[in-house]
Design brief:
The complex is a heterodimer of chains A (112) and B (111). With 112 residues, chain A is mostly beta strands. Chain A contains no helices and 11 strands. In chain A, strand 5 and strand 6 form a beta hairpin. In chain A, the strands form 2 sheets. In chain A, strands 2, 4, 5, 6, 9, 10 and 11 form a 7-stranded mixed β-sheet that branches. A 4-stranded antiparallel β-sheet of chain A has the order 1-3-8-7, with no helix packed on it. Chain A is 0% helix and 48% strand. Chain B has no helices and 11 strands. In chain B, strands 2, 4, 5, 9, 10 and 11 form a 6-stranded mixed β-sheet that branches. A 5-stranded antiparallel β-sheet of chain B has the order 1-3-8-7-6, with no helix packed on it. In chain B, a hairpin with a 6-residue loop joins strand 4 and strand 5. Classes of the chains: A mainly beta (112), B mainly beta (111). Chains A and B meet through strand 5, strand 9 and strand 10 of A and strand 5, strand 9 and strand 10 of B.
């Protein structure tokens, strides 16, 4: 039981490049989330999913897209990376909307 | 303005000592309040979850208190250990999955 895993752990992009962050959970959770964490700020919700095939915008969705083709996977895409997207990205999952959220180890992304 | 404010921003304590972290929130309506521990380079891990009707909840040496009337919570760490060095994040949920995160308090425990 690995919980929530994220790949890659680190990535450096140049402005304008694209990439996809992968989140996987093996707890059969319905809800999955993508957050970003910036220095001096609390985690902010980018996008979330309430089940396979569904996605919705969170607090800071601009510049990101997501897909939930399989229940266990939640992908976060950056189509054209910008320096403002330099951050640490966390994926989380939960069984219900009010139950505990389990977080992955994070992906540190730097956009130059 | 952040709806969850934590203080202090950081603190240093000696191993074996106690400390208390504060969290003030303006989130309304309020469903539950959570405290997470985040080790450097890791994801947050839940310590406690309290509903509005609960005043205190413990998890080992961690004790969280909640005053829903004044919208304040505290996390008390007893007999600190080196492994307690981490960031502690207060998280308030207004209804369901939409969590409001504080910026965290960084605790450093020194031998």
């Amino acid at each position: 039981n690995a919980g929530v895993t994220q790949t890659p752990k680190f990535r450096v992009l140049k402005t304008g490049q694209s990439m996809t962050l992968l989140c996987a959970q093996d707890m059969n959770h319905e809800y999955m989330y993508w957050y970003r964490q910036d220095p001096g700020m609390g985690l902010r919700l980018i996008h979330y999913s309430v089940g396979e095939g569904t996605t919705a915008k969170g607090e800071v969705p601009d510049g990101y897209n997501v897909s939930r083709l399989k229940k266990q996977n939640f992908l976060l895409g950056l189509e054209s990376a910008a320096p403002s997207q330099t951050s640490v990205y966390f994926c989380a999952s939960s069984y219900t909307s009010v139950s505990e959220q389990y977080f992955g180890p994070g992906t540190r992304l730097t956009v130059t | 303005k952040n709806q969850v404010e934590q203080s202090p921003q950081s603190l240093i304590i000696l191993e074996g000592k106690n400390c208390t972290l504060q969290c003030n929130y303006t989130v309304s309506p309020f469903s539950n309040l959570r405290w997470y521990k985040q080790d450097t380079g890791r994801g947050p891990v839940s310590l406690t979850i309290m509903t509005f009707s609960e005043n205190t909840k413990s998890n080992g040496r961690y004790t969280a208190t909640l005053d829903a009337d004044t919208k304040q919570s505290s996390l008390h760490i007893t007999a600190s250990q080196l492994s307690d060095s981490a960031s502690y994040i207060c998280v308030v949920s207004p209804n369901d999955y939409k969590l409001s995160f504080g910026a965290g308090t960084t605790v450093t425990v020194r031998a």
